[in-house]
Every structure is written in C-alpha cells, then in structure tokens.
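User: quick one, fold this
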Amino acid sequence: VSWHQDSNYWGVESDRFVSAWLAVSPASEESGCIRLLPGSHRGPKMEHVDTWEKDNMLTRGQTIMGVDESKAVKLELQPGEIALFDYRLAHASHANQSNDRRIGIGIRYMPPTARQTLADWDCASLLRGNDIHGHFELEPEPSCDFDPLAVAMHQKADEVQRKIYYQGSTRGQAAE
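Assistant:
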C-alpha cells in the first residue's frame, strides 16, 4: 500500500474524522505494518499520483511521491491492539514478507456533521445520540445473518464507494 491520505479520495468533509485499524493478526515490520508520516495531517492535502500499479492494494495505486522514508514511524500491533489516527495522516505499508497473513479491520469514526462531497448518497451507522444533520442514510441494524435489508444497503454502499474512488480517473471502473 503506497503512501496516501484517506482524506484525498474518500470524499468526506470533516475535521473530526478518525480512522481505526484493529489488528486481528500480528502487524509487524516483517508482515507489513502500517507506517505513518508524523505531522502530515496538519498541512494541506498532499498531491497524489495515480500509478495503477497492479500490486498496489489501493484502487488507483494513488501515491504521494517523494516521501522521506527516514521520517516514517512503524506502527507494529499485536492482535487485539488498535491504532487511531486522523484520516488526513499520510500512511503506507510494505508488502507482507512473513509466512502468515496480516489481517486488520478498518473502521471510520466521524461526527454526524460530516458529509459526503463526491456523491449524492452515502450511509453510516449511528453509534450514539441523534443525527439531526441527515448527511448519511442510517444503515439498518441487521436482524439476522445476511439480513436482506443490510445486504442490499451494503451492495449499494459498495457501488457508490467504487464510483467515489474512481471519480476523475482516466481509467474509471474498468481498471478493476
């Protein structure tokens, strides 16, 4: 995963957006733990270049060029540990060189004041309180495994998210 800022292509406008990465398996230097560029969240968005590299896990291979690797900080985590960081923070990870998988769960936390700027529709789960802003359609609470309403919402969200990720690209979704 090349150097990137999630804020550059998620289309969510908010100054209070936190990305959480929960380690399910060890995230070590050998397995390709997240590397962070301290302070990069404080400045303007950094320029990203679409590289379309086939081995890059990002949709467009979007990359911040010229990052000084000597300033990067490794974020090694054990299963059950979680990293919280501003979604404007530049981060990357090397390829997994271990004999095991590196598995993590990415979670996004944002306030109801946040809004999607690159699509007419988006959805979110309300964790607490009331949403008086209505910028996101609230996801239904599943009543069972593979709840048809929840599955349909997920499919719609996935379709919209793909359009957001490829918006403005020269290749569009055909690059998948």
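User: anything notable?
Assistant: The first helix runs from residue 148 to 166.
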